[in-house]
Write a structure and sequence with these properties.
This protein is mainly α and about 80 residues long. It has 4 helices and no strands. About 80% of the residues lie in helices and about 0% in strands.
Length: about 80
C-alpha cells in the first residue's frame, strides 16, 4: 500500500512540473521579453512614498492609500503611452 502512495506521489510531482512549464498563459510570452511593467513599478514606488508621507503626517492608512492610488494612475498612463508607440 505504501508503494502505491509513493508512485502516485511521484506521478503527481511530475504532472505538476509539466503543467508549470507548459502553461497556456498568454502572459508568459510577454514576460519572457525585456518589457517593463510600469504599473507594478509605479505601484511600488507610490506605496513607498505613501508610507513616507503617512509617517510624516501621522496618518499611515491615508498615506499608503493615496500613494498606491497615485502610483496606479501614473503606471496606467505610462503603460497606455507605451502601447501607443
Amino acid at each position: 500500500m505504501e508503494d502505491m502512495k509513493k508512485v502516485n506521489n511521484s506521478d503527481n510531482k511530475e504532472d505538476t512540473q509539466k503543467d508549470m512549464h507548459n502553461s497556456g498563459d498568454e502572459n508568459t510570452d510577454r514576460n519572457n521579453k525585456s518589457e517593463m511593467n510600469y504599473t507594478g513599478v509605479f505601484l511600488s514606488i507610490g506605496a513607498g512614498v505613501g508610507v513616507s508621507f503617512g509617517v510624516i503626517f501621522d496618518n499611515l492608512a491615508m498615506g499608503i492609500s493615496l500613494g498606491v492610488a497615485i502610483g496606479l494612475v501614473i503606471g496606467a498612463v505610462a503603460e497606455s503611452s507605451k502601447k501607443r508607440k
